[in-house]
Amino acid sequence: MAFLDNSGDIILDAVLTDAGRARLAAGDGSFKIVKYAFADDEIDYSKYDKNNLSGSAYYDLSILTTPILEAFTNNTSLMKSKLVSIPRTNLLYMPILAINEVADIGAALNAASGQASGSFAVSVDQTTDDTFAANPDRSTGVFFGIKTETKAIQIDQGLATSAISKDQELDASLVETHFIVEMDNRLGTLQSPAGTSQGYSYLDDDNIAAYNISNTGDNQGFFSPLTGQNTSPLAGPRGVAFRFRVRPSLELQTSNFLFTKLGTTGNSWTGIGSKTFSYIDTIVRLTGATTGYKLSIPVRFVKQE
């Protein structure tokens, strides 16, 4: 990976992703380019200088000559800030996604009690579940991996501004109706708030599973409307709440291999005596298909040793 010199003209620097090469190599006609996506990952818009004494042609010169990354094939590492087309021309604010740490469901990150360094913790087996269930000091941010419970991680969508009343409805064209959830399939799978496991829509060569969840006919409880009466970290108009759970993989439940290779061992947990735990820290990525907004949600898998 390297930077391209953007001080002159760049005609085109393009490569196929791993998935694209696999489809091309299949030779069965499945490789067809039908659409494109654009992103501005490398762009720092603070470099726009409207006070440049050389005139308006120089206002964005620093942006246009910023070195950009050469094209590379790992789809999990590129195009994290995709551009979207919004037909309205009078928008002052764009909606964001925010972790809800104050609602009744999925109430708080463990950071609230200093337990897990700002991650949602998922216990991975029955023994770990039982330890947390029996301990009155377990954090509200710990989710049972095996036991049945009603908690879920909640992400709120809406405007993060008080300039517009939270009681005003968010424009329908900005309300998310489809989310893409991505996570490491070696570690966990997506569950509905009710605990129903979901099948992934796509699994790439890096074992990242993508789940396409639409509110059309949603009978699993992923989507919930948000109003000004709901408790939310968003100060402005709200769109929807997206709720989900993460179920630990069978390998995490039955083996210590990945904890040894990818995580840390011998960790203590405040309030649970002399017991030690193994951790694996990971990220679950949530993308709104309407606005393209992405949010990285920290998740820690916990196993009692």
Please give a structural write-up.
With 305 residues, the protein is mainly beta. It folds into two domains: 1-83, no CATH class; 96-304, no CATH class. It contains five helices and 15 strands. Strands 4, 5, 7, 9, 10, 13, 14 and 15 form an eight-stranded mixed β-sheet that branches. Strand 13 and strand 14 (276-288) form a beta hairpin. The longest helix has 9 residues, at 18-26. The model is unreliable at 105-116 (pLDDT under 50).
Task: Kindly list the characteristics that best describe this protein.
eight-stranded mixed beta sheet, 5 helices, 2 domains, 305 residues, mainly beta, globular
Proportion of beta-strand residues: 25-35%
Label the overall shape. globular
Largest sheet: 8 strands, mixed
Taking all Cα atoms into account, the compactness measure Rg is: 22 Å
Number of helices: 5
Q: Unreliable segments (pLDDT under 50, ≥5 consecutive)?
A: 105-116
- Broad structural category: mainly beta
Q: What is the succession of H and E elements? A: EHHEEEHEEEEEEEEHHEEE
Mean pLDDT: 83
Which range best describes the helical content: under 10%, 10-25%, 25-40%, 40-55%, 55-70% or over 70%? 10-25%
Number of domains: 2
Terminal Cα span: 39 Å
